[in-house]
Amino acid sequence: MKFGLGPYHLAAWGESDHATVYQEMLAQAPAAEESAFDSVLVMERHFTTEGFCPAPAVAAAALAATTTALRIGVGCHLGLTHPLYVAEDVATLDNISNGRVIFNPGKPLLPQELSGYNLPLAERDSRFWESLEVLLKAWAPQPFHHQGKHYRIPANLPQNVYAEGYTQISVTPKPAQPLVPVWVSASDEDAVRGAAARGLPIVGPPFDTLEQLRAKLDLYREAPGEGGIPPGQIVAAVREVYVAESSERARQDAEEPLLSLYYRYAAGGLLAEKPASFEALARDRFIVGDVDRCVQEIARYRDELGVNYLICRLALPGLDHQKVLEAIALFGRGVISEFRMFGFPTEIRVRALQERPPQTGSALAEAGP
Amino acid sequence: MARSLQFGVALWGMQAFKSNPRHHVKLYEEMIEDARLAEELGFDTLWLTEHHFWYDGYCPSLLVAAGAIAAATRRIQVGTGVLLLPMHDPLRVAEGAAVADIVSGGRFQLGVGVGYRDVEFDGFGIARKERGARMEEALDILNLAWTQERFSYQGRYHRYSDVSVTPKPVRRPIPVWIGGWAEAVVQRSARRGLNLIGASGRALELYERTAREAGVDISQARIAVGGDVWVDDDEERARREMVPLLRYLYREQLGGWHFFPGVGLDHPQLDAIVEMAVARAVIGTPETVVSKLGQQLEANPLANHVFCRVRFDSVPRHRLRHCLELLAQEVMPRLKKEAAVR
User: Fold this and answer.
1) Coil vs helix vs strand at A50
2) CA-CA distance, B135 to B133, in Å (whole number)?
3) Angle between helices B183-192 and B131-147 (to 10 degrees)
4) How far is A319 from chain B (nearest CA, A)?
5) What is the Cα–Cα distance from A295 to A309, expressed in whole angstroms?
6) How many CB pairs under 8 A join A and B?
């Protein structure tokens, strides 16, 4: 099983300011890199009270510059603007990051995102899929021409006289990877069906319960097209994860940040139910507790749903930076190792949790010669 | 007139020319190295440059590149020189620039220009002839997005109702520079009291006059003069190495892109135009460069920023490093000192 950190919203909750929130992310990602995480993700939302990140490729480039091993997940909306802007941004990001991009496109979900960018809801899905088609053409090695329902590229406008005769266009630079991984945010049934039909992995959204994810994965497996999930295919899900020394501590730290976030989700229409209590929200949705509880819960997603890539929020909204760093380290040491190191003898595992080796990895590097 | 002079280096576009194909991953790696070096050497600004759909992979996404540089540096200001604003969605630019400003802790400078290649406009489905009007609308929208909690805008090309752009940049607004020297361009900048990059001589006089007539205070505006600069210990070697390179560059960018309408690669006037552009380059020892840039500053009393375009593809890394060092150690301090006492 693989593990991602995020997706980061980069919103400023309560007293915090955005510059600090971004700096904290830029410190947390290298920590995750030192704690055996596989990726860090940033996502896009517009026009929110707390200032969620509206330009994830810019924030992702900052992550690329401060890490070397993590893959960089960039959760861009498609359909709000001309698709070539996104195609260029992500291709550039892939070069900046030495081919570490995971592209995680999603539909704009908030009403103010659609109205702000003048996107009628009726066109949202068709613009999403057509934009994705344009991106894949734009990243392919050959120049291309695109004529769809919404976009004609190049447009061949008669006013652009020196563009006459240019029937094809080449987006440059090309991504560094031969194929940029495209994981589609499974926000609704259309997203699940569309991803399945194109043979693309899906990412289960954090606000779905385990049962809602199960329904989407069943739909994905049965959808016409590629059919089923081929061996080696990514099955990803985002979860609100937080780990601490004890389950009580974890709950104490996580309750307020997650309630704030889920009230926001509910207000934005992302949540089917009204958030009643932390317990009600957490059931089959949040993974909050000590190492053992987190391991048990994550195993359910693996065993019951076939999830093999878990994207763990950990950096909960408004949570103290030091606590996030501690959670990242503990998650790496206690949880990731549990899903990675097969055949790891129990007695060593227990000891490893109790007594950390005196100097490992980054600690050694910091100590110097 | 005593001036507090700022000094910048330009223009990072990460092209892989046909004459010297490179892997873009290496070019972006070098962009970060160069930005760190420029910061270490004490330059005030570093500028990126944008084009689209060109064979050499010219950087199309300046805000993304700026995000990477911002995270890799602490002090240097990162600017776009220039972002071709009429080709973009201004709301998207406002949001991306705000994120770049936040990542950098308030070190982002947004230089914008109108753009001129039909092929680029056409790729985005925009008619080039709309660029002036689109520029005006976009500048309005950037300002509204960064300074107003909520705004609505009814333009010819852009309409937004009741949007609240978040997060706001560290500086509200982000400093905006207008690139270019055409009358309409400098007048636009003057009327809005914006910074100016690339204009000199009569264009600057027009800028000053327009601002005065419009009652706009430009006392805080940054006015950048400069151009192609190359410093080496040996004047003869500097010219021998750089002149052919510049000639190649200008032939390709002026002719290949129809910079002057109608003047393509096969046009009889192209060579003469290219020679004029090459002749304007400031190439030589630190003494030569100090004297020539000093003359530019003297001729343009309004100027308070110098930009040196030293980053040309195909130049060996050690040569660029040496050029940056000479510029930082021998040229910049002398020009700053002269400006301060004059």
Assistant:
1) coil
2) 5
3) 20
4) 19
5) 14
6) 199
Residue B201 forms contact with A (CB below 8 Å): no
Q: How far is CA B29 from the centre of its chain?
A: 21
φ/ψ bin of B227: left (φ > 0), alpha (ψ from -120 to 50), beta (otherwise) = left
Instruction: Please judge whether A92 and B127 are an interchain contact, meaning their C-beta atoms are less than 8 angstroms apart.
Output: no
Burial class (CB within 10 angstroms; exposed 0-12, middle 13-18, buried 19+) of A231: exposed
Assess contact for B69 and B46: CB atoms under 8 A: yes
Nearest-angstrom CA–CA distance, A266 and A278: 13
- Facing residue for A173 by CB, picked from B24, B68, B103: B24
Q: Can you tell me which residue has the tokens 């004297």?
A: B291
Note the pLDDT tens digit of each residue in B67-79. Answer: 999 999 999 999 9
Q: Does pLDDT of B342 surpass 80?
A: no
Q: Which two tokens stand for residue A317?
A: 């909204």
Beta-carbon contacts of residue B341 (< 8 Å; ≥ 6 apart): B2
- B261 → chain A, closest CA residue: A162
Look at the alpha carbons of A105, A108, A109, A113 in this order and tell me if their dihedral is positive or negative.
positive
Distance, in Å, from the CA atom of A187 to the CA atom of A105, rounded to the nearest integer, reads: 10
Q: Which whole-number Å values give the CA distances from A361 to A226, A244, A251, A313, in the listed order?
A: 42, 21, 30, 23
Query: Which residues are bridge partners to A75 per DSSP?
Result: A43
Query: In which residue are the tokens 């910091």 written?
Result: A366
Question: Which of A319, A311, A351 shows the shortest CA–CA distance to A334?
Answer: A351
Nearest alpha-carbon partner for A21 in A240, A315, A312: A315
Q: Tell me, what amino acid is at B198?
A: G
**Does the interface ipTM go beyond 0.95?**
yes
Nearest CA to B100 out of B154, B62, B54, B56 is that of B62
CB B246 within 8 A of CB B312: yes
Q: What is the pTM of this model?
A: 0.96
Q: What is the pLDDT along chain A (369 residues), one digit of tens a residue?
A: 999 999 999 999 988 999 999 999 999 999 999 999 999 999 999 999 999 999 999 999 999 999 999 999 999 999 999 999 999 999 999 999 999 999 999 999 999 999 999 999 999 999 999 999 999 999 999 999 999 999 999 999 999 998 988 999 999 999 999 999 999 999 999 999 999 999 999 999 999 999 999 999 999 998 765 556 888 899 999 999 999 999 999 999 999 999 999 999 999 889 988 888 999 999 999 999 999 999 999 999 999 999 999 999 999 999 999 999 999 999 999 999 889 877 777 777 677 667 665 555 554 455 444
Yes or no, beta carbons of B160 and A118 under 8 Å apart: yes
